[in-house]
Amino acid sequence: MFQIKICGIRSVRDARFASLAGADAIGLNFYAKSPRFVDLENAELVVPAIPKSVTKVGVFVNESAEEINAISSRLELDYVQLHGDEPAEFLADVTQAKVIRAFRCGDDGFTPIANYLEACQALGRLPDAVLLDAHQPGEYGGTGQAIDWASVAENRQILAGAPLVLAGGLTPFNVAEAIHATHPNAVDVASGVESAPGTKDLLLIRAFCSAAKKAFA
After folding, report:
1. Is 93 among the catalytic positions?
2. CB-hemisphere CA count at 13 Å for 71?
3. Rg of the chain's alpha carbons, rounded to an integer?
4. Residue-wise pLDDT tens digits, 184-204
5. CA angle, residues 110, 128, 64, in degrees to nearest 5
6. Inter-residue contact 91 to 117 (CB < 8 Å)
C-alpha cells in the first residue's frame, strides 16, 4: 500500500518531479469536469514517466465499468479510485485494478459510509482501500476543504479493516498534524500542492512529501 499520493497529475514534468520528491503514488483524473482532467492521449504520455515503483491510480466519477476497465488495462493502472455515486454492486464489475472507494463526508456523518461498506461485505466485495474526503455539494473532490480529523479517528472501525487514505484540505503545513490525528495508511493531496486549480507547484509537492514522510516515520 502506498503512503503519499499526489493526485491530478497532468504532465510528464509533474509526474517525474512528484516521484523524485517522494510520492509513491500518482493520481490521474479522468473526470472531464475536473480542472485536473487528463485525457487518455496525454495520460499515455505521462504514464511512462512514472517509475515502476510508484503506484498508478486512475480517478473516475460515475464512469461505466467497461470504460474504467478499458483505461485501466491500457495504462496498466494499479488502482481505480471511484469518486462518484457508484453503488456497492459496481465494485465487482471493476476487474482490471484494485479499487479505492472514495467517500465525501458531509452532514450525514459516517452512517452512509458504514451502510455502504456493510452492503459491500454482504456482496463479498469490499474495496481494497477507503478514501475519506470532504463533502461539497456538486463537487467530487479537490475542493481544498478539510474533514473533521477527530471524527475520522473515532469512526475508524466502520472501515471493516480496509486501509484508510486520508484526503480533503491537506497541505504541506497540516499534513503532519492530520497523520498524527488519524493514523491513516496513506494521504492524498491535489489542490494543496497547487498554485492554481490544476497547476502543480513543485515546491509545495516537495514540502508536502517531506512533511508526510517525517510524520509517517
Report:
1. no
2. 26
3. 16
4. 999 999 999 999 999 999 999
5. 90
6. no
**Cell digits for 102?**
472514495
What's the helix, strand, coil split of the chain in %, to 5?
A: 40, 20, 40
CA distances from 186 to 48, 51, 60, 88 (A): 24, 19, 19, 23
Top-tier CATH class for 4-216: alpha beta
The answer to whether residue 173 scores a pLDDT higher than 60 is: yes
Cα 192–chain centre separation: 13
Closest by CA to 144, choosing from 116, 169, 180, is 169
The whole-angstrom separation of Cα 105 and Cα 184 is: 16
Other beta carbons within 10 angstroms of residue 33's beta carbon come to 9
Q: Are 31 and 83 in contact (CB under 8 A)?
A: yes
Domain ranges of the chain: 4-216
Question: Is 120 within 8 Å of 127 (Cβ atoms)?
Answer: yes
Give me the pLDDT at residue 191, please.
94
Catalytic, out of 7, 105, 120, 209: 7
Given a cut of 90, whether residue 106 has pLDDT beyond it is: no
55-60 and 25-29 beta bridge pairing: parallel
Catalytic residue among 14, 105, 120, 133: 133
Catalytic annotation present for 7: yes
Mean pLDDT for the stretch of residues 119-134: 96
CA dihedral (91, 93, 94, 100) in degrees, to 10, reads 0
pLDDT (mean) for 61-73: 98
